[in-house]
Write the structure tokens for this entry.
Amino acid sequence: MSALVLPTLTAWTSSHLTAILTATTQANFTAAFDALFARNVNVIYNGKQLSRDQYQAQLLSQSSAALEEQGASVSVQGQLEVPGDKGQISGLVGFFYTSIVDSRFLVMGAPAESKVVSSFNAIIQATEPRPQSNPHIRGYFDPRRIVTVNQIATDQALHVTIPATSINSSSPGVTENFALGPGPRKIPPGPFGGQFGPGPVRLDPMETNAHPETFPGHGEFGAPPVMIPGETIGEDTNTKA
């Protein structure tokens, strides 16, 4: 029988940590946490010493198993490992990861999101004793656990993402930019052509009886007198003569 090859230190650590953060139930979270961290793990989180229970509660609040969360996605980058004297059974691991967690609470009809960016450095050793063999149970035994972890993490809330299906694109004359807030609304022209109310009324010349007039002074003496049909300027008119 060929010897079983264990996963590499970085693959083992990143897969177990992802299982912790994406667990959807308390039972799955606890099982994943116990499979990664030793019972007497030494924890430094953001420069502070934490007990195992405190660290477990911290990771629980950042996972999809938390009461107010409903899902999480994890991306791991920059993995680095230094194997120990016995190969992949022990050593040092370091990487960065980003976790996006969706909340159960809705804001404007869409789930709120939070983002965790972290650097994760750990010391791994074989701490678990081999259990008694059982011919009815298949699988491999992995004695590795993290005995020391030094983690730096920041947690920030993201902007609300409104699903595109919630936007009624069939509304005519309306443009919205939901990333920056409501945009300007296009108002259709009114019955008189203006966008801000009716425009000036233009009457036909036949209705106003307009005709050119000539006045002395070319406007030096102010506005000319009002012209009334049948009247003259500067002399009396005797209509009975």
Remarks:
- The mean pLDDT is 75.
- The two ends are 143 Å apart (CA to CA).
- The beta strands are 37-45, 48-50, 69-84, 87-107, 110-126, 144-157.
